[in-house]
Specification:
By secondary structure, the protein is mainly α. Helices cover 45% and strands 3% of the residues. The chain has one domain: Orthogonal Bundle (Hypothetical protein af1432), CATH 1.10.3210.
């Protein structure tokens, strides 16, 4: 894939090569022209919970679940809420605390904003955050061993049991869900963090 916006050859130390050949410069991220299949492929092969689940369970499957738990108007936001993990991988919450959430947000924020502009989803919606926590609680119940840990911030899990489908099927269901929802995409100039009117 030839990108006309890359006037200079990007460094392999600061740019991410995607499955299609698309190159995302992390120092100055612009995702214009990136195919959705690039992020779908990466998310389908990214494990949740740092791979500690009993069966392989991907960020792509998690994202589809979030998209189904939010009100319909926010379904694209739910599907795309972890799109930046196609670049960073799924960093476990405890590791985010160790490194520093504010530091990670500062460094990865421009990447997430570039992806939001490209695919038309909103950032940091409360409905998506709530659904994300329900998914986390459900994953704990269905995919991880019982643990003597305090997850007191989590709501009740969803009643339906998670049955992982594997990376190739996860790739397909993510793309199918995106096709169902892409009509909800917002123009790039309307992508911003939530305002009180969005809540």
């Amino acid at each position: 894939m030839r990108q006309l916006d890359l006037l200079e050859k990007p460094s392999g130390r600061t740019a991410m090569l995607m499955a299609s050949g698309f190159t995302l410069d992390l120092e100055n991220p612009c995702a214009d022209g990136m195919p959705i299949s690039d992020v779908a492929r990466s998310l389908a092969y990214q494990p949740r919970w740092a791979g500690a689940t009993r069966e392989f369970y991907s960020v792509a499957e998690h994202s589809v679940m979030v998209s189904r738990l939010v009100p319909p108007a926010f379904a694209l936001d739910g599907l795309c809420h972890d799109l930046d993990e196609a670049i960073s991988g799924d960093i476990a919450s405890c590791v985010k605390v160790l490194i520093g959430r504010d530091h990670l947000k500062k460094r990865l924020g421009p990447v997430k904003k570039a992806l939001a502009r490209r695919f038309g989803f909103r950032l940091d919606g409360l409905d998506v955050k709530r659904a994300d926590l329900v998914c986390m609680a459900t994953e704990l119940r269905d995919l991880l061993p019982p643990a003597w840990m305090d997850f007191g911030h989590l709501p009740a899990p969803h009643p339906d049991k998670i049955i992982p489908v594997g990376p190739e099927q996860a790739y397909r269901i993510f793309l199918e869900r995106y096709e169902e929802l892409k009509h909800l995409a917002r123009p790039a100039e309307n992508i911003r963090k939530k305002r009180k009117t969005d809540q």
